[in-house]
Amino acid sequence: MQQENNTKLDDDDYLRNPLPKNEHVGVDDEAMYLEGEPINHLSVVVRREKEQDKDFVPEDDSEDGSEDEGVSDIEIDEDEELVGHEATHIPNFEYDRQDPPMVEGTTYPTMNEFKLALSMHAIKHEFEFKTEKSSTYRFRANCKRKDLDKCPWKVYASTTDDQCTVKVRKNRCAHECSSTRRKKKVKNATKHWICEKVKDFLIDDATLKAKALQKKIKECYKVHIHYKRVYMGRILALNQLYVNIDHYTINGKIRFRKMFFALKPCLDGFLNGFRLYLALATASAVDGHNWLYPVCFGVFDSETNDNWIWFMSQVRQAIGYPRGLAIHTDAGQAVMTGVGEVFREAEKRECMFHLVNNFKKQHGGKVFDDHLCAAAYFWNPYLFEKHWNAMEKEKPAATNYLRQFHTRLWTMSQFSPFCKVDYVTNNLAECLNNWFKHFKSLNLDDLMDKIRQLLMIKWNQRKKIAKKWNGRVLPHIIQKLNEQSRELSLEVDECSKQVAEVTAMGGSGFRFVVNLEERTCSCRKWQVCGIPCKHALAFITSLPNASIDDYVHEYYYIDKFRAAYQQLIPAMPDKSQWPKSTHGFHLYPPLLKATSW
Questions:
Q1: Half-sphere exposure at residue 410, Cβ-oriented, CA atoms within 13 angstroms
Q2: Computed from CA positions of residues 64, 66, 70, 75, in that sequence, does the dihedral angle turn out positive or negative?
Q3: What's the pLDDT tens digit per position in 402-414?
Q4: CA 66, CA 59: separation in Å to the nearest integer?
Protein backbone atom coordinates (compact mmCIF):
# COMPACT_ATOMS: atom_id res chain seq x y z
CA MET A 1 0.00 0.00 0.00
CA GLN A 2 1.40 3.42 -0.92
CA GLN A 3 1.87 6.10 1.68
CA GLU A 4 -0.81 8.78 2.04
CA ASN A 5 0.25 12.28 0.92
CA ASN A 6 -0.25 13.83 4.33
CA THR A 7 2.00 11.36 6.14
CA LYS A 8 5.19 12.87 7.50
CA LEU A 9 8.23 10.87 6.50
CA ASP A 10 10.23 11.93 9.55
CA ASP A 11 7.65 10.52 11.94
CA ASP A 12 6.63 7.32 10.24
CA ASP A 13 8.04 3.83 10.34
CA TYR A 14 8.88 3.64 6.66
CA LEU A 15 12.26 2.47 5.48
CA ARG A 16 13.19 0.80 8.71
CA ASN A 17 15.77 -1.90 8.14
CA PRO A 18 13.88 -5.22 7.79
CA LEU A 19 17.15 -7.16 7.83
CA PRO A 20 19.10 -5.55 10.66
CA LYS A 21 22.82 -6.20 10.54
CA ASN A 22 25.38 -5.44 13.19
CA GLU A 23 28.31 -4.35 11.06
CA HIS A 24 30.62 -4.50 14.02
CA VAL A 25 33.75 -2.36 14.03
CA GLY A 26 35.96 -3.12 17.02
CA VAL A 27 37.77 -0.15 18.58
CA ASP A 28 38.40 -1.11 22.20
CA ASP A 29 37.67 -4.85 22.10
CA GLU A 30 41.13 -5.94 23.21
CA ALA A 31 39.95 -6.41 26.80
CA MET A 32 38.38 -9.73 25.82
CA TYR A 33 41.91 -11.10 25.41
CA LEU A 34 44.01 -8.94 27.76
CA GLU A 35 42.69 -9.72 31.23
CA GLY A 36 44.00 -7.45 33.95
CA GLU A 37 45.89 -5.16 31.57
CA PRO A 38 44.98 -1.47 31.11
CA ILE A 39 43.09 -0.79 27.90
CA ASN A 40 42.95 2.57 26.18
CA HIS A 41 39.18 2.92 26.49
CA LEU A 42 37.42 5.62 24.52
CA SER A 43 33.71 5.02 24.20
CA VAL A 44 32.47 4.64 20.66
CA VAL A 45 28.92 5.72 20.06
CA VAL A 46 27.83 4.16 16.81
CA ARG A 47 25.97 6.59 14.57
CA ARG A 48 22.87 4.44 14.44
CA GLU A 49 22.55 4.41 18.23
CA LYS A 50 23.47 8.06 18.65
CA GLU A 51 20.87 9.32 16.23
CA GLN A 52 18.36 6.57 17.08
CA ASP A 53 17.49 6.20 13.44
CA LYS A 54 15.01 3.37 12.92
CA ASP A 55 16.54 2.49 9.58
CA PHE A 56 19.69 0.91 10.96
CA VAL A 57 19.07 -0.20 14.53
CA PRO A 58 20.68 -3.64 14.96
CA GLU A 59 18.34 -6.10 16.62
CA ASP A 60 20.14 -9.38 16.15
CA ASP A 61 23.37 -10.87 14.86
CA SER A 62 21.84 -13.07 12.18
CA GLU A 63 24.30 -13.61 9.36
CA ASP A 64 21.85 -15.30 7.04
CA GLY A 65 18.72 -13.35 7.84
CA SER A 66 18.21 -12.61 4.18
CA GLU A 67 17.00 -16.17 3.65
CA ASP A 68 14.64 -16.36 6.63
CA GLU A 69 10.90 -16.65 6.29
CA GLY A 70 8.73 -13.60 6.61
CA VAL A 71 11.26 -11.12 5.29
CA SER A 72 8.88 -9.78 2.68
CA ASP A 73 5.76 -10.68 0.76
CA ILE A 74 7.66 -11.60 -2.42
CA GLU A 75 6.57 -14.94 -3.79
CA ILE A 76 9.34 -17.30 -4.90
CA ASP A 77 8.87 -20.84 -6.14
CA GLU A 78 9.77 -23.23 -3.37
CA ASP A 79 12.01 -25.48 -5.44
CA GLU A 80 13.49 -22.71 -7.52
CA GLU A 81 17.27 -23.02 -7.67
CA LEU A 82 18.95 -19.69 -7.04
CA VAL A 83 21.94 -19.30 -9.32
CA GLY A 84 24.12 -16.23 -9.57
CA HIS A 85 23.58 -13.68 -12.28
CA GLU A 86 24.31 -9.98 -12.52
CA ALA A 87 21.71 -7.45 -11.47
CA THR A 88 21.20 -4.89 -14.20
CA HIS A 89 19.10 -2.11 -12.74
CA ILE A 90 21.71 0.00 -10.96
CA PRO A 91 23.73 2.03 -13.49
CA ASN A 92 27.48 2.05 -13.24
CA PHE A 93 29.68 4.50 -15.12
CA GLU A 94 32.64 2.13 -15.11
CA TYR A 95 33.91 1.41 -18.60
CA ASP A 96 37.05 0.40 -20.46
CA ARG A 97 39.05 3.63 -20.33
CA GLN A 98 41.48 2.37 -22.95
CA ASP A 99 38.63 1.72 -25.40
CA PRO A 100 35.52 3.68 -24.33
CA PRO A 101 32.30 2.48 -25.97
CA MET A 102 30.39 4.88 -28.20
CA VAL A 103 27.39 2.74 -29.09
CA GLU A 104 23.96 4.31 -28.81
CA GLY A 105 22.69 4.31 -25.23
CA THR A 106 26.14 4.48 -23.59
CA THR A 107 26.18 6.92 -20.66
CA TYR A 108 28.93 9.02 -19.10
CA PRO A 109 28.73 10.94 -15.80
CA THR A 110 29.55 14.39 -17.26
CA MET A 111 30.01 16.14 -20.59
CA ASN A 112 33.72 16.64 -19.92
CA GLU A 113 34.22 12.94 -19.30
CA PHE A 114 32.29 12.11 -22.47
CA LYS A 115 34.59 14.38 -24.50
CA LEU A 116 37.69 12.75 -23.00
CA ALA A 117 36.22 9.32 -23.72
CA LEU A 118 35.47 10.33 -27.31
CA SER A 119 39.06 11.51 -27.76
CA MET A 120 40.32 8.18 -26.44
CA HIS A 121 37.89 6.33 -28.71
CA ALA A 122 39.16 8.23 -31.76
CA ILE A 123 42.82 7.65 -30.88
CA LYS A 124 42.18 3.98 -30.22
CA HIS A 125 40.42 3.50 -33.57
CA GLU A 126 42.88 5.71 -35.48
CA PHE A 127 40.65 8.50 -36.76
CA GLU A 128 40.02 12.17 -36.07
CA PHE A 129 36.72 13.92 -35.54
CA LYS A 130 35.61 17.49 -36.10
CA THR A 131 33.30 19.13 -33.58
CA GLU A 132 30.16 20.70 -35.06
CA LYS A 133 28.35 21.59 -31.85
CA SER A 134 29.64 21.67 -28.27
CA SER A 135 27.90 22.99 -25.16
CA THR A 136 27.31 21.96 -21.58
CA TYR A 137 24.30 19.85 -22.59
CA ARG A 138 24.86 18.88 -26.24
CA PHE A 139 27.69 17.59 -28.43
CA ARG A 140 27.80 16.71 -32.12
CA ALA A 141 30.79 15.69 -34.25
CA ASN A 142 31.60 13.93 -37.50
CA CYS A 143 34.64 12.41 -39.14
CA LYS A 144 37.27 14.99 -40.07
CA ARG A 145 37.71 13.29 -43.44
CA LYS A 146 33.99 13.43 -44.18
CA ASP A 147 34.50 15.43 -47.40
CA LEU A 148 37.69 13.69 -48.56
CA ASP A 149 36.73 10.06 -47.96
CA LYS A 150 32.93 10.44 -47.77
CA CYS A 151 33.06 8.81 -44.32
CA PRO A 152 29.52 8.64 -42.86
CA TRP A 153 30.61 8.40 -39.21
CA LYS A 154 29.06 10.91 -36.83
CA VAL A 155 28.10 11.00 -33.18
CA TYR A 156 25.51 12.95 -31.22
CA ALA A 157 25.22 13.04 -27.41
CA SER A 158 23.24 15.10 -24.92
CA THR A 159 22.45 15.27 -21.23
CA THR A 160 19.64 13.28 -19.64
CA ASP A 161 16.91 14.60 -17.32
CA ASP A 162 19.37 15.11 -14.46
CA GLN A 163 21.22 17.71 -16.61
CA CYS A 164 24.53 16.01 -15.85
CA THR A 165 24.65 12.44 -17.17
CA VAL A 166 25.48 12.33 -20.89
CA LYS A 167 23.97 9.72 -23.19
CA VAL A 168 25.10 8.80 -26.70
CA ARG A 169 21.96 9.36 -28.77
CA LYS A 170 23.17 8.60 -32.31
CA ASN A 171 26.16 6.72 -33.67
CA ARG A 172 24.83 4.42 -36.36
CA CYS A 173 27.53 4.40 -39.03
CA ALA A 174 30.86 2.62 -38.86
CA HIS A 175 34.06 4.55 -39.44
CA GLU A 176 35.34 3.86 -42.96
CA CYS A 177 38.28 6.17 -43.72
CA SER A 178 42.01 5.48 -43.45
CA SER A 179 44.18 5.62 -40.33
CA THR A 180 45.38 8.96 -38.95
CA ARG A 181 47.63 7.45 -36.28
CA ARG A 182 50.91 8.20 -38.07
CA LYS A 183 50.22 11.91 -38.52
CA LYS A 184 52.67 14.27 -36.84
CA LYS A 185 49.81 16.12 -35.14
CA VAL A 186 46.97 14.17 -33.55
CA LYS A 187 44.55 16.98 -32.77
CA ASN A 188 42.15 14.87 -30.69
CA ALA A 189 44.97 14.36 -28.18
CA THR A 190 44.21 17.63 -26.37
CA LYS A 191 46.05 18.87 -23.31
CA HIS A 192 43.09 17.70 -21.20
CA TRP A 193 43.35 14.19 -22.66
CA ILE A 194 47.10 14.22 -22.04
CA CYS A 195 46.47 15.41 -18.47
CA GLU A 196 44.28 12.38 -17.76
CA LYS A 197 46.71 9.94 -19.37
CA VAL A 198 49.86 11.17 -17.59
CA LYS A 199 48.32 11.38 -14.09
CA ASP A 200 49.10 7.74 -13.34
CA PHE A 201 52.72 8.24 -14.39
CA LEU A 202 53.05 11.40 -12.27
CA ILE A 203 51.44 9.81 -9.23
CA ASP A 204 54.16 7.16 -9.33
CA ASP A 205 56.95 9.64 -10.16
CA ALA A 206 56.23 13.37 -10.03
CA THR A 207 59.71 14.21 -11.39
CA LEU A 208 58.97 12.88 -14.89
CA LYS A 209 59.54 15.59 -17.52
CA ALA A 210 57.55 16.24 -20.68
CA LYS A 211 60.08 14.41 -22.87
CA ALA A 212 59.76 11.22 -20.81
CA LEU A 213 55.96 11.52 -20.77
CA GLN A 214 55.94 12.04 -24.53
CA LYS A 215 57.81 8.76 -24.92
CA LYS A 216 55.47 6.92 -22.54
CA ILE A 217 52.39 8.17 -24.40
CA LYS A 218 53.84 6.94 -27.68
CA GLU A 219 54.58 3.52 -26.16
CA CYS A 220 51.09 3.18 -24.68
CA TYR A 221 48.90 4.78 -27.35
CA LYS A 222 51.03 4.55 -30.53
CA VAL A 223 50.68 8.26 -31.31
CA HIS A 224 53.24 11.04 -31.50
CA ILE A 225 52.21 14.25 -29.74
CA HIS A 226 54.02 17.55 -29.98
CA TYR A 227 56.32 18.31 -27.03
CA LYS A 228 54.60 21.61 -26.19
CA ARG A 229 51.20 19.96 -25.86
CA VAL A 230 52.63 17.23 -23.60
CA TYR A 231 54.27 19.97 -21.54
CA MET A 232 50.93 21.78 -21.10
CA GLY A 233 49.16 18.54 -20.20
CA ARG A 234 51.86 17.75 -17.62
CA ILE A 235 51.46 21.17 -15.96
CA LEU A 236 47.69 20.68 -15.85
CA ALA A 237 48.07 17.25 -14.23
CA LEU A 238 50.61 18.45 -11.65
CA ASN A 239 48.36 21.35 -10.65
CA GLN A 240 45.51 18.90 -10.05
CA LEU A 241 47.58 16.34 -8.16
CA TYR A 242 50.07 18.26 -6.07
CA VAL A 243 50.22 21.31 -3.84
CA ASN A 244 51.83 24.50 -5.15
CA ILE A 245 52.40 26.69 -2.12
CA ASP A 246 52.29 29.88 -4.23
CA HIS A 247 48.59 29.23 -4.79
CA TYR A 248 47.89 29.50 -1.06
CA THR A 249 49.50 32.86 -0.38
CA ILE A 250 46.66 35.21 0.59
CA ASN A 251 47.35 38.92 1.15
CA GLY A 252 51.05 38.15 1.42
CA LYS A 253 50.53 35.48 4.12
CA ILE A 254 51.29 31.80 3.55
CA ARG A 255 48.35 29.87 4.99
CA PHE A 256 47.89 26.21 5.82
CA ARG A 257 45.82 24.39 3.22
CA LYS A 258 46.22 20.63 3.56
CA MET A 259 48.28 17.87 5.15
CA PHE A 260 48.69 14.13 4.69
CA PHE A 261 49.65 11.95 7.67
CA ALA A 262 50.60 8.28 7.47
CA LEU A 263 52.75 5.90 9.52
CA LYS A 264 54.73 3.26 7.65
CA PRO A 265 53.72 0.41 10.02
CA CYS A 266 50.06 1.17 9.23
CA LEU A 267 50.68 1.20 5.48
CA ASP A 268 52.76 -1.99 5.48
CA GLY A 269 50.29 -3.75 7.76
CA PHE A 270 47.40 -2.88 5.47
CA LEU A 271 49.21 -4.23 2.41
CA ASN A 272 50.56 -7.36 4.11
CA GLY A 273 47.68 -8.57 6.23
CA PHE A 274 44.43 -6.94 5.25
CA ARG A 275 41.31 -7.25 3.21
CA LEU A 276 41.65 -4.56 0.51
CA TYR A 277 38.86 -2.31 1.72
CA LEU A 278 39.04 1.39 2.62
CA ALA A 279 36.40 3.61 4.22
CA LEU A 280 36.55 7.38 3.79
CA ALA A 281 36.70 10.32 4.95
CA THR A 282 39.92 9.13 6.56
CA ALA A 283 41.35 6.00 4.97
CA SER A 284 40.41 3.24 7.42
CA ALA A 285 40.22 -0.54 7.12
CA VAL A 286 39.26 -3.56 9.23
CA ASP A 287 41.50 -6.47 10.16
CA GLY A 288 40.46 -10.12 10.21
CA HIS A 289 38.87 -9.58 13.63
CA ASN A 290 36.77 -6.68 12.23
CA TRP A 291 38.77 -4.31 14.41
CA LEU A 292 39.25 -0.75 13.21
CA TYR A 293 42.58 -0.18 11.46
CA PRO A 294 43.42 3.44 10.52
CA VAL A 295 45.65 3.50 7.42
CA CYS A 296 46.27 7.21 6.80
CA PHE A 297 44.78 10.65 7.44
CA GLY A 298 44.24 13.86 5.55
CA VAL A 299 43.53 17.35 6.84
CA PHE A 300 42.33 20.12 4.55
CA ASP A 301 40.52 23.42 4.78
CA SER A 302 37.37 22.52 2.83
CA GLU A 303 35.74 19.58 1.09
CA THR A 304 36.29 20.44 -2.55
CA ASN A 305 36.89 18.28 -5.61
CA ASP A 306 40.52 19.45 -5.79
CA ASN A 307 41.20 18.64 -2.13
CA TRP A 308 39.72 15.15 -2.39
CA ILE A 309 41.62 14.45 -5.62
CA TRP A 310 44.79 15.56 -3.82
CA PHE A 311 44.07 13.37 -0.78
CA MET A 312 43.30 10.29 -2.86
CA SER A 313 46.50 10.89 -4.84
CA GLN A 314 48.45 10.81 -1.58
CA VAL A 315 46.67 7.59 -0.59
CA ARG A 316 47.63 6.04 -3.90
CA GLN A 317 51.25 7.07 -3.44
CA ALA A 318 51.18 5.49 0.01
CA ILE A 319 49.52 2.13 -0.76
CA GLY A 320 49.77 1.82 -4.54
CA TYR A 321 46.88 0.30 -6.48
CA PRO A 322 46.32 -3.22 -5.07
CA ARG A 323 44.13 -5.50 -7.16
CA GLY A 324 40.60 -5.91 -5.81
CA LEU A 325 40.59 -2.68 -3.78
CA ALA A 326 37.11 -1.52 -2.68
CA ILE A 327 36.50 2.03 -1.43
CA HIS A 328 33.42 2.97 0.62
CA THR A 329 32.25 6.58 0.80
CA ASP A 330 29.26 8.54 2.01
CA ALA A 331 27.06 10.45 -0.42
CA GLY A 332 29.40 13.46 -0.74
CA GLN A 333 29.97 14.47 -4.36
CA ALA A 334 33.51 15.78 -3.75
CA VAL A 335 34.83 12.62 -2.12
CA MET A 336 33.28 10.45 -4.84
CA THR A 337 34.92 12.66 -7.47
CA GLY A 338 38.30 12.23 -5.78
CA VAL A 339 37.96 8.46 -5.68
CA GLY A 340 36.79 8.33 -9.29
CA GLU A 341 39.69 10.44 -10.54
CA VAL A 342 42.51 8.59 -8.79
CA PHE A 343 41.22 5.03 -8.24
CA ARG A 344 39.24 4.63 -11.44
CA GLU A 345 39.24 0.84 -11.53
CA ALA A 346 38.58 0.30 -7.81
CA GLU A 347 35.21 -1.00 -6.64
CA LYS A 348 33.25 2.05 -5.46
CA ARG A 349 30.65 1.55 -2.74
CA GLU A 350 28.13 4.00 -1.35
CA CYS A 351 26.97 4.09 2.26
CA MET A 352 23.46 2.67 2.57
CA PHE A 353 22.78 4.85 5.61
CA HIS A 354 23.31 8.02 3.60
CA LEU A 355 21.41 6.59 0.63
CA VAL A 356 18.34 5.90 2.77
CA ASN A 357 18.43 9.36 4.34
CA ASN A 358 18.57 10.98 0.91
CA PHE A 359 15.92 8.64 -0.46
CA LYS A 360 13.47 9.50 2.33
CA LYS A 361 13.55 13.17 1.30
CA GLN A 362 12.17 12.22 -2.12
CA HIS A 363 10.07 9.08 -1.73
CA GLY A 364 8.16 7.08 0.85
CA GLY A 365 5.80 4.16 1.13
CA LYS A 366 5.48 0.73 2.71
CA VAL A 367 6.84 -0.95 -0.41
CA PHE A 368 10.22 0.67 0.27
CA ASP A 369 9.98 -0.21 3.95
CA ASP A 370 9.65 -3.83 2.88
CA HIS A 371 12.12 -3.97 0.02
CA LEU A 372 14.79 -1.23 -0.14
CA CYS A 373 17.03 -2.28 2.74
CA ALA A 374 16.23 -5.93 2.07
CA ALA A 375 17.61 -5.48 -1.44
CA ALA A 376 20.84 -4.08 -0.01
CA TYR A 377 21.38 -7.06 2.30
CA PHE A 378 20.98 -9.86 -0.24
CA TRP A 379 24.16 -11.47 -1.54
CA ASN A 380 22.32 -13.19 -4.38
CA PRO A 381 21.47 -11.01 -7.45
CA TYR A 382 18.37 -13.08 -8.14
CA LEU A 383 16.85 -12.20 -4.77
CA PHE A 384 17.93 -8.58 -5.16
CA GLU A 385 15.99 -8.47 -8.42
CA LYS A 386 12.85 -9.71 -6.65
CA HIS A 387 12.93 -6.75 -4.26
CA TRP A 388 13.94 -4.26 -6.94
CA ASN A 389 11.11 -5.33 -9.24
CA ALA A 390 8.60 -4.99 -6.40
CA MET A 391 9.69 -1.37 -5.87
CA GLU A 392 9.76 -0.58 -9.58
CA LYS A 393 6.26 -1.96 -10.10
CA GLU A 394 4.89 0.16 -7.26
CA LYS A 395 6.74 3.41 -7.96
CA PRO A 396 8.99 3.63 -11.05
CA ALA A 397 9.97 7.22 -10.23
CA ALA A 398 11.74 6.02 -7.08
CA THR A 399 13.84 3.40 -8.86
CA ASN A 400 14.66 5.95 -11.56
CA TYR A 401 15.89 8.23 -8.78
CA LEU A 402 18.21 5.48 -7.53
CA ARG A 403 19.49 4.86 -11.06
CA GLN A 404 20.31 8.51 -11.62
CA PHE A 405 21.64 9.69 -8.26
CA HIS A 406 23.03 6.59 -6.52
CA THR A 407 25.20 4.94 -9.12
CA ARG A 408 27.81 3.45 -6.75
CA LEU A 409 27.37 -0.03 -5.34
CA TRP A 410 25.05 -0.25 -2.34
CA THR A 411 23.83 -3.85 -2.49
CA MET A 412 25.85 -6.89 -1.47
CA SER A 413 24.57 -8.68 -4.57
CA GLN A 414 26.94 -6.52 -6.63
CA PHE A 415 29.97 -6.60 -4.33
CA SER A 416 33.00 -8.28 -5.88
CA PRO A 417 34.51 -11.39 -4.26
CA PHE A 418 37.98 -9.84 -3.92
CA CYS A 419 38.14 -7.76 -0.73
CA LYS A 420 35.96 -10.08 1.45
CA VAL A 421 34.19 -7.22 3.27
CA ASP A 422 30.38 -7.11 3.05
CA TYR A 423 29.61 -3.84 4.88
CA VAL A 424 26.85 -1.81 3.24
CA THR A 425 27.34 1.20 5.54
CA ASN A 426 30.40 3.38 5.98
CA ASN A 427 30.39 2.84 9.73
CA LEU A 428 34.19 2.65 9.95
CA ALA A 429 34.48 6.39 9.36
CA GLU A 430 31.96 7.12 12.12
CA CYS A 431 33.74 4.82 14.57
CA LEU A 432 37.09 6.46 13.83
CA ASN A 433 35.68 9.96 14.26
CA ASN A 434 34.10 8.97 17.57
CA TRP A 435 37.39 7.44 18.72
CA PHE A 436 39.26 10.71 18.11
CA LYS A 437 36.47 13.19 18.84
CA HIS A 438 37.78 13.99 22.34
CA PHE A 439 41.00 15.37 20.83
CA LYS A 440 39.72 17.38 17.85
CA SER A 441 40.03 20.65 19.76
CA LEU A 442 43.82 20.21 19.98
CA ASN A 443 46.22 22.13 17.77
CA LEU A 444 46.93 20.23 14.58
CA ASP A 445 50.44 19.11 15.52
CA ASP A 446 49.24 18.00 18.96
CA LEU A 447 46.30 16.17 17.37
CA MET A 448 48.54 14.22 14.98
CA ASP A 449 50.87 13.33 17.84
CA LYS A 450 47.93 12.13 19.93
CA ILE A 451 46.73 9.95 17.03
CA ARG A 452 50.23 8.50 16.71
CA GLN A 453 50.28 7.74 20.44
CA LEU A 454 46.86 6.05 20.37
CA LEU A 455 47.92 3.90 17.43
CA MET A 456 51.21 3.01 19.13
CA ILE A 457 49.31 1.72 22.17
CA LYS A 458 46.76 -0.11 20.03
CA TRP A 459 49.44 -1.82 17.90
CA ASN A 460 51.27 -3.04 21.00
CA GLN A 461 48.09 -4.45 22.53
CA ARG A 462 47.09 -6.32 19.39
CA LYS A 463 50.59 -7.69 18.92
CA LYS A 464 50.40 -9.13 22.45
CA ILE A 465 47.04 -10.70 21.64
CA ALA A 466 48.31 -12.31 18.44
CA LYS A 467 51.17 -13.97 20.32
CA LYS A 468 48.65 -15.82 22.52
CA TRP A 469 46.82 -17.48 19.64
CA ASN A 470 47.52 -20.95 18.28
CA GLY A 471 46.33 -22.66 15.13
CA ARG A 472 45.66 -21.27 11.68
CA VAL A 473 42.37 -19.33 11.75
CA LEU A 474 41.44 -16.53 14.16
CA PRO A 475 39.81 -18.19 17.20
CA HIS A 476 36.65 -16.04 17.17
CA ILE A 477 36.00 -17.06 13.55
CA ILE A 478 36.25 -20.77 14.34
CA GLN A 479 34.09 -20.35 17.45
CA LYS A 480 31.44 -18.53 15.43
CA LEU A 481 31.43 -21.14 12.65
CA ASN A 482 31.22 -24.02 15.12
CA GLU A 483 28.20 -22.40 16.75
CA GLN A 484 26.52 -21.78 13.40
CA SER A 485 27.07 -25.38 12.30
CA ARG A 486 24.80 -26.67 15.05
CA GLU A 487 21.04 -27.06 14.56
CA LEU A 488 21.06 -26.25 10.85
CA SER A 489 17.73 -27.20 9.24
CA LEU A 490 19.32 -28.00 5.89
CA GLU A 491 19.35 -31.11 3.75
CA VAL A 492 22.51 -31.98 1.79
CA ASP A 493 22.33 -33.93 -1.49
CA GLU A 494 25.77 -34.66 -2.88
CA CYS A 495 26.45 -34.32 -6.59
CA SER A 496 30.12 -35.30 -6.17
CA LYS A 497 32.76 -35.22 -3.46
CA GLN A 498 33.07 -31.45 -3.86
CA VAL A 499 29.61 -30.35 -5.06
CA ALA A 500 26.21 -30.61 -3.38
CA GLU A 501 22.73 -29.16 -3.37
CA VAL A 502 21.72 -27.75 0.02
CA THR A 503 18.00 -27.27 0.59
CA ALA A 504 16.11 -25.57 3.41
CA MET A 505 13.90 -28.11 5.21
CA GLY A 506 10.42 -26.63 5.34
CA GLY A 507 9.63 -22.96 4.97
CA SER A 508 11.01 -21.41 1.80
CA GLY A 509 12.52 -24.59 0.40
CA PHE A 510 15.37 -22.56 -1.13
CA ARG A 511 18.05 -24.69 -2.76
CA PHE A 512 21.66 -23.58 -3.14
CA VAL A 513 24.66 -25.16 -4.87
CA VAL A 514 27.89 -25.46 -2.85
CA ASN A 515 31.26 -26.15 -4.47
CA LEU A 516 33.95 -26.84 -1.87
CA GLU A 517 36.81 -26.95 -4.36
CA GLU A 518 36.00 -23.50 -5.75
CA ARG A 519 34.92 -22.16 -2.32
CA THR A 520 31.56 -20.98 -3.67
CA CYS A 521 27.87 -21.10 -2.85
CA SER A 522 25.12 -19.82 -5.13
CA CYS A 523 23.90 -17.61 -2.26
CA ARG A 524 27.25 -15.73 -2.76
CA LYS A 525 27.87 -15.05 0.92
CA TRP A 526 30.95 -17.31 0.95
CA GLN A 527 32.46 -15.52 -2.04
CA VAL A 528 31.79 -12.02 -0.70
CA CYS A 529 32.83 -12.66 2.93
CA GLY A 530 35.47 -15.37 2.62
CA ILE A 531 33.83 -17.31 5.47
CA PRO A 532 31.68 -20.41 4.77
CA CYS A 533 27.96 -19.65 4.73
CA LYS A 534 25.48 -21.91 6.51
CA HIS A 535 24.92 -23.93 3.32
CA ALA A 536 28.65 -24.60 3.00
CA LEU A 537 28.81 -25.44 6.72
CA ALA A 538 26.05 -28.01 6.29
CA PHE A 539 27.98 -29.70 3.46
CA ILE A 540 31.38 -29.51 5.23
CA THR A 541 30.08 -30.96 8.49
CA SER A 542 28.37 -33.81 6.61
CA LEU A 543 31.74 -35.05 5.34
CA PRO A 544 33.94 -37.38 7.41
CA ASN A 545 37.27 -35.90 8.52
CA ALA A 546 36.50 -32.46 7.03
CA SER A 547 37.81 -29.43 8.92
CA ILE A 548 35.99 -26.11 8.78
CA ASP A 549 39.17 -24.04 8.97
CA ASP A 550 40.32 -25.53 5.64
CA TYR A 551 37.58 -23.50 3.96
CA VAL A 552 38.18 -20.08 5.55
CA HIS A 553 39.93 -17.42 3.44
CA GLU A 554 43.50 -16.53 4.37
CA TYR A 555 42.46 -12.98 5.32
CA TYR A 556 41.21 -14.55 8.57
CA TYR A 557 44.44 -16.43 9.29
CA ILE A 558 46.37 -15.69 12.47
CA ASP A 559 49.51 -15.17 10.37
CA LYS A 560 47.77 -12.39 8.43
CA PHE A 561 46.70 -10.71 11.67
CA ARG A 562 50.26 -10.87 12.99
CA ALA A 563 51.62 -9.42 9.74
CA ALA A 564 49.25 -6.46 10.07
CA TYR A 565 50.70 -5.51 13.46
CA GLN A 566 54.23 -6.78 13.00
CA GLN A 567 56.02 -3.43 12.85
CA LEU A 568 56.42 -1.07 15.77
CA ILE A 569 55.00 2.43 15.79
CA PRO A 570 57.95 4.27 17.36
CA ALA A 571 57.81 6.21 20.61
CA MET A 572 58.56 9.96 20.45
CA PRO A 573 59.57 12.65 22.95
CA ASP A 574 57.12 15.45 23.73
CA LYS A 575 56.63 18.46 21.49
CA SER A 576 59.07 20.69 23.39
CA GLN A 577 61.92 18.42 22.32
CA TRP A 578 61.11 18.32 18.61
CA PRO A 579 63.53 19.90 16.08
CA LYS A 580 62.82 23.56 15.38
CA SER A 581 61.43 24.53 11.98
CA THR A 582 63.83 26.18 9.54
CA HIS A 583 61.49 26.71 6.58
CA GLY A 584 62.05 30.48 6.52
CA PHE A 585 58.39 31.50 6.68
CA HIS A 586 55.53 31.63 9.17
CA LEU A 587 52.57 29.39 8.38
CA TYR A 588 49.24 31.07 9.15
CA PRO A 589 45.99 29.18 9.82
CA PRO A 590 43.57 28.71 6.91
CA LEU A 591 40.62 30.91 6.13
CA LEU A 592 38.07 28.29 7.05
CA LYS A 593 34.83 27.51 5.25
CA ALA A 594 33.96 23.89 6.10
CA THR A 595 36.53 21.56 7.61
CA SER A 596 37.17 17.88 7.02
CA TRP A 597 39.70 15.38 8.27
A1: 27
A2: negative
A3: 988 888 899 999 9
A4: 14
